[in-house]
Amino acid sequence: MWIDILKGFIVGICASAPIGPISILVIQKSLSKGHRAGFITGLGASVVDTLFSIIAIFALAFVQSFISNYQVLILIAGGIILSILGLSMSFSDPFRKMKSGGGRASATDFGQALVMGLTNPGAVFVILTLFAFFGIGSEQHPHSWSIAPVVLAVSGGSVLYWFMVTWALSHFRKKFKMNTILWISRLTGAVVVIMGIALLGQGLFKVIFQGASLL
Question: Within 13 A of 3's CA, how many CA atoms are on the CB side?
Fold first, then answer.
């Protein structure tokens, strides 16, 4: 069991590491508002990782069927949500949020990461792949309660990763000029918008040119 817990901890770190919309959001929050806001944003991502870990272990077949049946709707809805969040990041004023001791963290920071993570259900397959790589599976823990420490370990690894990343980013934040932080906010938001448009375009392509149905 202790080996599986260690493996789960490593899975949590590995699942958080890839650069994606949430990572970009955490970077933007950490640089514009400071460590606390960035970490709260990272906690939203950790909740998503924990939820997807549970799904990957117990309900993968259902998730595969759901994604297959509603792929177009997920692409279009996810694209719209990412685009709106990206525009919000691009046009927000980071200087208004910056204070001498760092910006104030809010539930909005957590919620944005949560929504962004939930609109990317493909992440469940990343966690599933990591579980398979490390040899973690529900068949090794036939009782639902016995897998709980592994899931908590995944969450712990994710939380530690985001704590360290946001601490480092907030430290370097002090070395950036105001104009540099402004451009970083604009560029990171633009990248998220591009990702959203790409998802939206993929969904619309399937509807218009391949005759796919939304439902």
Answer: 5
